[in-house]
Amino acid sequence: MTADAAAPALRIGPHTVWPPVVLAPMAGITNAPFRTLCREFSGGKGLFVSEMITTRALVERNDKTMHLIRFDGSEKPRSIQLYGVDPVTVGKAVRMIVDEDLADHIDLNFGCPVPKVTRRGGGSALPYKRNLLRSILREAVGNAGDLPVTIKMRKGIDDDHTTYLDAGRIAVEEGVTAVALHGRTAAQHYGGTADWEAIARLKEHVPEIPVLGNGDIWSAADAVRMMRETGCDGVVVGRGCLGRPWLFGDLVAAFEGGGAPAAPSLREVAAVMRRHAELLGEWLGDEERGVIDFRKHVAWYTKGFSVGSEMRRKLAMTSSLAELDAHLADLDLDQEWPDGAEGPRGRTAGSKRVVLPDGWLEDPYDCSVVVGADAELDTSGG
Ligand SMILES: Cc1cc2nc3c(=O)[nH]c(=O)nc-3n(C[C@H](O)[C@H](O)[C@H](O)COP(=O)(O)O)c2cc1C
Predict the structure, then answer these.
(1) Cα angle 48-54-57, degrees, rounded to a multiple of 5
(2) Residues 6+ away with beta carbon under 8 Å from 127
(3) How far is CA 321 from the centre of its chain?
(4) Which residues pair with 16 in a beta bridge?
(5) 87 close to 138: Cβ distance less than 8 angstroms
(6) Is 241 a known active-site residue?
(7) Is residue 79 within 8 Å of 49, Cβ to Cβ?
(8) Which stretch of DSSP H or E encloses residue 58?
């Protein structure tokens, strides 16, 4: 979408988001350091959502959770993603965010496909129980004051039990500001390709509020194509940014019509890796912990480059910035961006049977349903 075919800015309540591009919440990834990196590449443009925070842990002021919700002073608006299964606890968490001025936007996660969560009726199993979904949204919106509340969901449990159209309608009725759809069912996990037609269908179904499309945006061109093909109001980009925070710079250029920034050489990638590890150390208050946390990003950053399995192993075992510097200096840094770095990255595992509580599918409107609090225990996201 070049400047002459510009998309309108995305409105999330009082916040104007331009270009209409959102960093997907990713547990263990989209912490303040990673958001900072992405924002640096975008020149501050776009919206960057926190890692998922469970509502119970927030209201209980769990130490780790209180650390996770910290934003860098330069983050505006501050977007927190919450996950909760109990309407009252969700309401309390939202009220806490408002009263303590912890964020400017709240996103609710209904997309987690992990068996230990769906087995208890949480995550992407939850919207099947329409009335429970409605109660959660009502408590969230009712306690949010002026803060916009958005939701992020999958298409449903499986192809025979899709929920996204009903969930979109319920979201509109309960005053949700925008809905994001990952075009996969829980059964698909991360396999196959995301169904962008479902995003178009949701857009037609809930014309009252912005619809954000999510799934399989691997390049800025994919983002522009998703907007064109589905008519969605914005895009949410997840795995495409793993080891590639500069994708946000490409996205801005694609939407603003500027020339695409040159793809980085390995030397430039190495400098970003170094900075990412350093930021993590500062954020965690401990260099070693930062470098250890950074290890999970190494394979994504080096994807497609000739690095060699021995060096990849060494990089993924690093415990200090000095060691990281030494290994990075040993790389053949003059390599240009390889074709092999394009396309899918991150989780791609396909279909799994969705484990549900007994009788879960019998009555979508069963009002007596209570989802066990342990459905909030998993933190691996969406
Ligand atoms: C490592 C990882 C962690 C994730 N954590 C979350 C999460 O906390 N909340 C959420 O709504 N989705 C989460 N997701 C799902 C993404 O936000 C996104 O919906 C999904 O990856 C599809 O988009 P993509 O094709 O652009 O990656 C996670 C995905 C990955 C790969």
Answers:
(1) 125
(2) 110, 133, 153, 156, 163, 164, 166, 167
(3) 28
(4) 11
(5) yes
(6) no
(7) yes
(8) helix 55-59
CA of 215 to the centre of ligand 1 (A): 9
Instruction: Point out the ligand 1 atom lying closest to the alpha carbon of residue 182.
Output: 19
Q: Is the pLDDT of residue 41 over 70?
A: yes
Which pLDDT tens digit goes with each residue over 343-367?
A: 999 988 887 789 998 889 988 987 7
When pLDDT is averaged across residues 198-223 and rounded to a whole number, the result is 98
Q: Rounded to the nearest whole angstrom, what is the distance from the C-alpha of residue 25 to the centroid of ligand 1?
A: 6
Largest pairwise CA distance in the chain: 62
Q: Give the C-alpha distances (Å, rounded to integers) separating 175 from 25, 183, 201, 254.
A: 22, 23, 20, 32
DSSP structural state of residue 104:
S
Full-model pTM = 0.95
pLDDT digit string (tens) for 157-207?
Answer: 999 999 999 999 999 999 999 999 999 999 999 999 999 999 999 999 999
Single-letter code of the amino acid located at 191: G
